[in-house]
Specification:
Distance between the termini: 83 Å
Largest sheet: 5 strands, mixed, barrel
Shape: elongated
CATH class of the largest domain: Mainly Beta
Helix content: 10-25%
Number of domains: 2
Strand order of the largest sheet: 1-2-3-5-4
CATH topology of the largest domain: OB fold (Dihydrolipoamide Acetyltransferase, E2P)
Order of helices and strands: HEEEHEEHEEEE
Radius of gyration: 24 Å
Number of strands: 9
Amino acid sequence: MFKKIILPALLFLVSGFIAQIANAVPAAPSPTCEIKAIILSAAKKTTNLNRSEEVPIDYYAVKLKIETSLTYQQDGGGSCEDLVDQEANSIVTLSEYKKIPVKAGQEISARIHYGGDERLGGYFLTNVEILKEGVPTVEAGDESAIKSSQEIYDMLVEQKQLKTVEDIKLDSEKKQYSVTGYRNAKLLFFIPISLKVELKIDALTGDIKQMNKPWWGFLVR
């Protein structure tokens, strides 16, 4: 009876130890590449982890059309040249995104490397520089490039376009958000007020296309 209890317990402990070792194994060495690419889509994601003790990770999933690729640092096998004219899924961490917000349609230069946290997968994108702003192209039915309402909210508050957001609605056909909220302003250039405005925002790029103010808005700065 004692052996029947001890043996399964030992097997459970050993399997758990092996799983921890497997999770701790670093990614296989691979080259770091210097690339030029077009961003096809960029969307904020959160890992869906099955293990309850893990904390979900927020990141940006970026799809690239790679135009040129040169070796920056050769580690392990693989060739950077194999990436040319390929579409690649890449990962941008939140800290990298805060440095250079990326969006669909941009032409960028960057470094890509497969490594780090393998739960995310794909190439990790760093040292991003925006070479050219472009017009994103989205295939019919492809909603992956449309920014979430939370992204639009965060952008407006971070850029101080609005101090509070009252309502956000998406017109999926026009790929445009209608946002109602309040921004800080000065009536007659010196009286602080909260001004209610309505914004029309491109759902792909986050660009403000139109701002509607009250009829007396000309008195406000």
